[in-house]
Every structure is written in structure tokens, then in C-alpha cells.
Amino acid sequence: MSEKLKVGVLGATGMVGQRYVTLLADHPWFEIVVVAASAHSAGKTYAESVAGRWKLEEPIPANVKDLPVLDVKEIAKIAAQVDFVFSAVSMSKDEIRKIEEDYAKTETPVVSNNSAHRWTPDVPMIVPEINPDHSEVIKYQRQRLGTKRGFIAVKPNCSIQSYTPALSAWQQFEPTQVIATTYQAISGAGKTLQDAPEIVGNVIPYIPGEEAKSEDEPLKIWGHVDAAKKAIVSATTPTITSQCLRVPVLYGHTAAAFVNFKQKPTKEELIAALENYSGEPQKLGLPSAPQQFIQYMTDDFRPQVRYDVNFEHGMGVSIGRLRPDKIFDWKFVGLSHNTLRGAAGGAVLCAELLKAQGYITKK
């Protein structure tokens, strides 16, 4: 019998769900045994359910294509077959909050790509290299839910991955103010360039909800677990303001960021902090962890989506063009892969961390 943990993917037919399926196909710790989606897809094989709408370059994994698609609302049936689930369901936020809690209450951990629980006070929102200790809040969440092993953990929005890691590496210099403008790939909307003719030769200056996420989610990540409140309390600095634009790129979110610091670091100190920054995933040797979390690129024409988005198999972050600014202290450009580090890959790494910490176990 396999020693791998048995996994279900909720929302397996969408773009993020498809990315989960490919990432987990040969995973050393996890094995997909359930794929679930809406009632419309239920009863079909996975290959049938995504026929004509498979969005990735990689083929459908052979060990998944013949699995029957279950109705995501068949909670008890799915929970009985898995050790934990990844969630990428497409529903209203209220529906997502309820269904993820319903799964957790069956003693099934939920690692979610959705935004619905990011501001639930006792739900950790984890970037494994930055705030692995936030998993400590799970004990309070379990008290609230009345569970022994069930809980919900989430990953943050893809829009923040291209600049938040750099700011995390620079925490010792006390950043106080940040402007971040993100140029976000169309796959962040679950589409390909062929699905979105409106983006070809165009830039769309508004992505609903993204700017609030870009400004607020890093503060929760930099916060702390408050035992008295049984919750994560967000940091109060730096102040972040942002604009988020959709651009005609398939994969890769680019950020142009400006930073003021309380301390006054040199360029050499900032670059060294980036290149030396690592965390628990590297220390533990987690399967999906990049060896180098952040790379600094000295060529002024880099990072570029075309050449750099797949750095460390899409799990690393690329920073370049660090230079003094006339109004702020420093400015830089960042790049991250939005469906790997920013979505499914980040959630898989989060699950690996939670397994290593003992929160996700065999039932």
C-alpha cells in the first residue's frame, strides 16, 4: 500500500485545478485519488470533463485522466477517501467559506487557493519561506470548529508574490512605505490568450479586488499569532499602495515597486539580503521548494517574463533594476510565476510544510 497521503482536488477542472493535477502527478508525498468539480462535470472521467478546455501545455497525467469526477458537494463521500484536499472551487465567497469549513469539520484538512478565508482571523495565510510559524494558529481554529485534525489554511494572492518576498528579505531595514504596480498575466483570470481576445494588443487598467489584496495581504503575512485573541494580528507597517493592471502575457506577474526604509541600507546590503534569504522549505528540503528562493539579476533588461518566469521551476522570484529613486529610497522590478509560486505550486509547498510540521497526517 502506498505511503503517500491521499489527496482530493476540489475544483479540479479549472485552470488552477488543472495545475494542481499536473504538479501532483508524480509527487513524492501526495497521491491524487479524487478529482471533484461542479455537478455539471460529475460522472464524467476527468479527461472527458476537461475535453476542449485543457489550458496547460503539459498533457493530462495518465494516472488522473480516467478518474471519475465527483460532485464537490458530496462532502462525506469525498472526505472518506482522502487524507486532505486542495481547494480551487469557483463559487461565491460565502459558498466557499461554508464548503471549506464543512470539509474541515469532517476532519479533512483544506489547503485553499481561494480568497474566501484569507481574512478569517484564525486561518493562516502562508508563504512558507516567510511566515511558517503562522500555522500555530491552527490549534485555535480547531477549537472553534470543534475538530481534532481538520482545519483550513490558505495561500495569499498571486499579485503579491513578485514584491512581498523582497520586502520580507529587507525587514531588517524596516520598510515604511511601498508603492507597487503589478502587471498581471491573463492566466491569473483563469484564461489563455486565446480565451481572452480583449487582452490582445491591450492593457486593462483594472482587476476587481486585486489592489486591496495587494495592499493588505502582505501585512497579515508579516503579522503574528496572538494567543489572547486566538488569531493572527496583522502588522501595521509598511503602508502599501498599489495599482494592478492586466497585460497580454500568459504567465508571469511583474511588479514595479518603490520603497522607503527607516534604516538606510546600501545597494550591496539590499542585494545580499535578497540572495541570502531562505526559510523553512529550504531548511527542510521540501519537495517543491526552490533551492534559491530569490535571485537578483544585474542585467538592466531583466527580469523578463520570456526568460525568467520559470526560474526554479516557477517557484523562485526574480528581482532586478534595484536603483535609487528621486522620491523614495529605492525602486526595483520583480517577477513571479502566477500559477506556480502564485497559485497551485505555492499551495502544494504550503501543504508540504504543514505535513512536515505534523498538521497534515494520514487519517
Automatic annotation (TrEMBL):
Gene3D superfamilies in alphabetical order: Dihydrodipicolinate Reductase, domain 2, NAD(P)-binding Rossmann-like Domain
CDD domains membership: ASADH_C_arch_fung_like, ScASADH_like_N
Full protein name: Aspartate-semialdehyde dehydrogenase
A GO molecular-function annotation: aspartate-semialdehyde dehydrogenase activity
Pfam families: Semialdhyde_dh, Semialdhyde_dhC
SUPFAM superfamilies: Glyceraldehyde-3-phosphate dehydrogenase-like, C-terminal domain, NAD(P)-binding Rossmann-fold domains
Naturally occurring in which organism (per UniProt): Loigolactobacillus binensis
Recorded family membership: Belongs to the aspartate-semialdehyde dehydrogenase family.
Keyword terms of this UniProt record: NADP, Oxidoreductase
Stretches assigned to the Semialdehyde dehydrogenase NAD-binding domain: 6-138
Domain of life the protein comes from: Bacteria
EC number: 1.2.1.11
